[in-house]
Amino acid sequence: MLEKRVELEGLKIVEIEKCKSDIKKMRDEMAARSTRTNCPYKYSFLDENNKFIPRRDAPSYPKYKLSQETIGALRKPTFDVWLWEPNEMLSCLEYMYHDLGLVKDFNINPITLKRWLLCIHDNYRNNPFHNFRHCFCVTQMMYSMISLCNLQAKISRMDILMLMTASVCHDLDHPGYNNTYQINARTELAVRYNDISPLENHHCAVAFQILAQPECNILSNLDNEQFKRIRQGIITLILATDMAQHAEILDSFKEILNDFAYSNEEHVTQLKMILIKCCDISNEVRPKEIAEPWVDCLLEEYFMQSDREKSEGLPVASFMDRDKVTKPTAQIGFLKFVLIPMFETVTRLFPEIEDVMLQPLWESKDRYEELKQIDDAMKEVRTAPSQFQKKKNESLTCETREK
């Protein structure tokens, strides 16, 4: 499955996305962001060292030749995203743009594409969950859905470009603390965006700051009208990933399903919003051994936030509190009330994804419910002796009083 590694002296990049490997360092880095003495706001989460020009030039970007086995696997939701190093993920992303015909259709300079992808990589932070591997994971799932649903025959080339590019950019420069924290802590991002989807607005801004660099502008050969349309489309899709908008977006999509028409631009826009939402939170679609490490990474990021919220006297969500949440309880509710209803809705339009995307979600829910039953049983066993001792003490007290 893995390609034969190309070893280039001095060019081997240390894998920093293995999310559980250096948690202490991550905590220190994230905590340090809020202690800048020159910050005019209570907390600043703007990365002052954003790298809008890649640290390496494209010629030094190793080229990996993908095998037919890998190319076939890349189009499936079962693709193992944990097996790849950053350079290999970059090569896979580059291949997707070529394979979908986007490089040819939009006259994208191949070297510019390489530089853009390098710059994208450099602008994802080393968070436990919201990192470059997550970016790759979401984009690979989008590529898979485009293939499985035969979207190239149903929507425009520009729509495909929007979907792929929004997926690549959707969490750029994520600080590792969610919108609720940004707003409650009155961070610079919250102030800048008036408490309205501060993170998603920031991801959009960073995406277009990168594209504003001529050496990274994969959209440079579009005319003004095309660029405006692509820009608006990408912004709409990235903003749709704010989970605060989840119910509204899903309900709107349900309303148009019975009369859905690919000729209706508004219908297609709502479809694209649902597709990027599906891909953004699609980890449980993947096999257990691929999906489960992502849960650990997400919980670690949640716990880092809730620990900080406690220390700062801010509200703490129970699903992020290390003293209250377990892996099964975290996933059961998310699967039952968010993931499964959304994928069931999408399956009405694309029944071909039921076996490969919806079925794994049902199986994952069943597995976590079984784990919860085991946890509950073990909890009862642990508490049983103390309950027995309590009753025994009460009995002895009664006997003493009678005497």
From TrEMBL:
Q: Which reaction does it catalyse?
A: 3',5'-cyclic GMP + H2O = GMP + H(+)
Q: In which pathway does it act?
A: Purine metabolism; 3',5'-cyclic GMP degradation; GMP from 3',5'-cyclic GMP: step 1/1
Chain sites annotated for binding AMP: 130-134, 171, 280, 331
Which sites bind Zn(2+) 2? 171
Key word Ion transport present in the record? no
Instruction: List the residue ranges of the region (Disordered).
Output: 382-403
Keyword list, A-Z: cGMP, Hydrolase, Metal-binding
Q: Which SUPFAM superfamilies match?
A: HD-domain/PDEase-like (SSF109604)
Instruction: Give every PDEase domain span.
Output: 54-375
Q: Does the record bear Glycoprotein in its keywords?
A: no
Give GO BP annotations, semicolon-separated. signal transduction
Q: Where is the composition biased (Basic and acidic residues)?
A: 391-403
Query: Which residues are named in the active-site annotation?
Result: 130
PROSITE patterns in the record:
PDEASE_I_1, PDEASE_I_2
Q: Which residues bind Zn(2+) 1?
A: 134, 170-171, 280
Q: What is its EC number?
A: 3.1.4.35
UniProt function note: Specifically hydrolyzes the second messenger cGMP, which is a key regulator of many important physiological processes. Highly specific: compared to other members of the cyclic nucleotide phosphodiesterase family, has the highest affinity and selectivity for cGMP. Specifically regulates natriuretic-peptide-dependent cGMP signaling in heart, acting as a regulator of cardiac hypertrophy in myocytes and muscle. Does not regulate nitric oxide-dependent cGMP in heart.
The molecule here is called High affinity cGMP-specific 3',5'-cyclic phosphodiesterase 9A
